[in-house]
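Please supply some protein, with C-alpha cells.
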Amino acid sequence: QVQVVESGGGLVQAGGSLRLSCVVSGSTFSINSMGWYRQAPGLQRESVATISSGGITNYADSVKGRFTISRDYGKNTVILQMNSLKPEDTSVYYCKAAVITTICWGQGTQVTVSS
C-alpha cells in the first residue's frame, strides 16, 4: 500500500522560511509526477508546485520566485523550500504523488504565517 507522508509545517513570521518534505513509500512502481497543493478554509485546493518524472517544474504565479520544488528520485522524496513567506500562504499543504495511474495524497501539514 502506497503511503505519502508530509512533514515540516509550522508557524513562522512573515518573511521567514519553511521547508516541507514528502516521502512516498510502499510502491514497487515508479513515481511519475509529484507536487504540492494547498487548501485554505472555505477555498478549493490549489496547485502550488509540481515536478515531473523528468524534472520539469511548474509553479503557481503567487509563489514564483519564493518557493522551490526539488526531488530526490532515489529516496522517493519531494521537497518544497518556501522563502519570503506571506500571511496569505497560510494553509494546509498536501503532497501528491502519481504512481502509474493512481493518485496518492498525504494527510496534509499546516503552515501558518503570522503578520
